[in-house]
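for the recovery benchmark. tokens below, seq after
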């Protein structure tokens, strides 16, 4: 059936008691009948690592309709029964423009349009170089039909994106079931991301999800260079928005300053810098800072400056370190603030869980209220006023050298990511201490500070 024929059939079904819908229907029908009823514009999609355009999103404009956002017109078209014909025409005019070599074009389709025969017939049989974005402003009534339609589109060469992720109906179920090639993060999550830790955390989780599932991430609605820099720092691969280029007739170029910002952010990530690069502190950046500084340590005094970084890396309230005396099978506390031994020594035999983990080179976490934990360790936690600790053995060149301890005043289970960071740093600290000890750098000048309020039976003279 032709678009005009479909319009006539739908118009006959619009109730006469609804004059608003009839008027709306007439407006949309006029757009469908006019050869220039829809004018496409194209907004560049940019790879943040290079600052280069990889594709364009096609957006519909309605020159003969009153000004309002295009998604509102599409929603109203669906309300009066003309949504699918309007989407079919928008796709037709968008794909009619010859695109630049090596660039793809992305078109928006609602879930109902993807399963519509009228819309599918408007698509070319060869969809290589076409991205189909499934919009989020419409609930899906038949997920299986949607999945089958997406499989058919992929078979024709199209790639699939979930549009407006974080704002609509999809949620985790649709992201898992559609196995999209792209996730496009909605602009509501992008606005002000450089000063909002909650948005940072949410985008980080989406990026991690996408990486695990082989999906690319694109940020929509990027309007400032600060947002652009933060998104690059969060490993968002692609972006679009007014900061990069406004939608225009074929084919808009990217703003030169924005392109330079993308390249600069990528270059900055490759360089080692001692100062914080992002306005929102990040545990991985603390880890990077430590990894860059530790190889340059030449004395234990140099390590004193890193106490805060070690704690911040895991969000710990206190970090302690113990040096291992292999002959006596004891640990001696090093005051991390001054990186000097305190003279406080502890028999590993008095801390069975710690001793077992230490000998097996395993990390150990202890909660103060865990009845099944080593009572000697929980007693230490209570005495120090902490509620949890992560103990990470230090080994270097085939031998144990000490223990790195992260304490928290709150009850917390240390995550796998935190454990991984702690082990990475522990490996480097181990080599530093072993190297300094091997050159005769003292780990033996006692200080007045004390770590544990140990009982006389556990403290060694």
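predicted aa per position
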């Amino acid at each position: 059936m032709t678009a005009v024929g479909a319009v006539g059939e739908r118009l006959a079904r619009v109730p006469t008691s609804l004059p608003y819908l009839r008027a709306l229907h007439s407006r949309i029908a006029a757009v469908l009948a006019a050869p220039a009823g829809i004018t496409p514009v194209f907004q560049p999609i940019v790879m943040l690592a290079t600052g280069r355009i990889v594709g364009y999103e096609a957006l519909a404009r309605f020159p003969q309709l009153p000004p309002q956002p295009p998604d509102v017109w599409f929603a109203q078209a669906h309300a009066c029964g003309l949504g699918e014909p309007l989407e079919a025409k928008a796709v037709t005019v968008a794909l009619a423009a010859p695109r630049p070599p090596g660039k793809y074009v992305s078109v928006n389709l609602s879930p109902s349009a993807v399963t519509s025969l009228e819309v599918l017939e408007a698509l070319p049989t060869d969809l290589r170089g076409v991205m189909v974005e499934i919009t989020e402003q419409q609930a899906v009534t038949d997920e299986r039909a949607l999945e089958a339609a997406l499989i058919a589109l992929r078979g024709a060469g199209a790639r699939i994106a979930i549009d407006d992720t974080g704002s609509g109906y999809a949620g985790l179920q649709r992201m898992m079931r559609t196995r999209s090639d792209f996730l496009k993060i909605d602009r509501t999550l992008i606005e002000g991301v450089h000063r909002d830790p909650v948005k940072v955390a949410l985008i980080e989780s989406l990026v991690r999800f996408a990486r695990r599932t082989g999906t690319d991430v694109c940020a929509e609605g990027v309007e400032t260079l600060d947002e652009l820099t933060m998104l690059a720092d969060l490993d968002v691969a692609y972006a679009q928005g007014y900061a990069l280029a406004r939608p225009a007739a074929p084919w808009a170029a990217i703003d030169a300053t924005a392109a330079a910002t993308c390249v600069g952010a990528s270059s900055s990530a490759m360089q080692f810098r001692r100062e914080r690069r992002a306005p929102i502190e990040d545990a991985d950046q603390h880890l990077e800072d430590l990894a860059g500084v530790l190889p340059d340590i030449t004395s234990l005094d140099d390590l004193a400056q890193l106490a805060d970084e070690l704690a911040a890396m895991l969000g710990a309230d206190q970090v302690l370190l113990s040096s291992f005396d292999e002959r006596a099978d004891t640990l001696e506390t090093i005051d991390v603030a001054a990186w000097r031994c305190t003279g406080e020594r502890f028999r590993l035999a008095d801390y069975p869980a710690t001793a077992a983990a230490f000998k097996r080179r395993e990390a150990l976490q202890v909660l103060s209220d865990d009845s099944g934990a080593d009572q000697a360790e929980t007693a230490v936690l209570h005495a120090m006023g902490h509620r949890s600790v992560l103990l990470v053995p230090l080994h270097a060149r085939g031998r144990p050298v000490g223990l790195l301890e992260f304490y928290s005043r709150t009850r917390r289970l240390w995550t796998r990511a935190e454990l991984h960071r702690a082990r990475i740093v522990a490996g480097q600290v181990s080599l530093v201490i072993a190297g300094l000890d091997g050159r005769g750098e003292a780990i033996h000048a006692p200080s007045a500070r004390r770590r544990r309020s140990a009982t006389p039976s556990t403290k060694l003279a």
